[in-house]
Amino acid sequence: MQATILPYPPQDEFFIDEGCHIIELSNSTQDTDVSIAQARVTPGVTTRWHRLADTIERYVIISGTGVVEVGELAATKVNPGDVVLIPVLCRQRISNTGDQDLVFLAICSPRFTSSCYEDQARHATSRNSGTPVAVIRSPTQRIGDAPAALRPPQTEHKAAQSWLPQMALRLFGIKF
Fold first, then answer.
1. Angle at CA 37, nearest 5°, toward 35 and 39?
2. Are 107 and 164 in contact (CB under 8 A)?
3. Domain interval for residue 50
4. How far apart are CA 69 and CA 92, in angstroms?
5. Is residue 4 situated within a structural domain?
6. Residue 17: band (very low, low, confident or very high) from pLDDT cuts 50, 70, 90
7. Is residue 104 part of a domain?
8. Is 40 a domain residue?
9. DSSP-derived secondary structure letter, 131
10. Taking 50 as the threshold, does the pLDDT of residue 162 lie above it?
11. Does the predicted model carry a pTM greater than 0.90?
12. Number of structural domains found in the chain
């Protein structure tokens, strides 16, 4: 890895199957030890149950409020500054219980790849309506494609997205 400054790319945000918006901040074959993404969950949404194989994940809550469910732990309220530690193959999801976006960093080690993602549920849902949140089929499909994405899937698949962020490297004092 070489010393690098990665600019914050808000224009690159995309929506994923899990039920949240992602800005990939750092995820490279040049730095396989860690990846960092900014995740954003809109009010009333609970992400899909999922887990990561061969990868430890950490959430660092930046803004908003929510409830996180991890493994066999009781559902726990999370606020800005809280850190959630998620072991390999530990089922997880997060709900936005507030009235503003829930924003957190998702930090994975080793780096996140789509092959480590294991979907544990069919759809994310809105607590307000109980109806499915748009199920996007690929990282290139955007939120504008939501009506088509809400149709039932023809086949089951693993999510094919790659994500995770760089601000956390500074939070944890990791040098580039």
1. 150
2. yes
3. 17-171
4. 6
5. no
6. confident
7. yes
8. yes
9. P
10. no
11. no
12. 1
Task: Report the share of the chain in percent with pLDDT over 70.
Answer: 69
Q: Is residue 129 part of a domain?
A: yes
**Is residue 132 over pLDDT 80?**
no
Q: 145 or 1: whose pLDDT is higher?
A: 1
164: left (phi over 0), alpha (psi -120 to 50) or beta: left
- Tell the residue number behind the tokens 């993602």, with chain if given: 117
Q: 107: closest CA among 14, 24, 17?
A: 24
H/E segment holding residue 149: helix 146-149
Per-residue pLDDT of 63-117, as tens digits, reads 999 999 999 999 999 999 999 999 999 999 999 999 999 999 999 999 999 899 9
User: What residue type is assigned to position 137 of the chain?
Assistant: R
Which residue is associated with the tokens 């990282």?
Answer: 139
User: In angstroms, rounded to a whole number, what is the distance separating the alpha carbons of residues 60 and 78?
Assistant: 10
CA dihedral of residues 37, 43, 49, 52 (deg, nearest 10): 10
CATH number of the domain residue 107 falls in: 2.60.120.10
Looking at the DSSP assignment, which residues form a beta bridge with residue 67? 77, 95
Cα(10)–Cα(159) distance, integer angstroms: 22
Q: Which residues contact 120 (CB under 8 A, 6 or more apart)?
A: 48, 49, 50, 51, 91
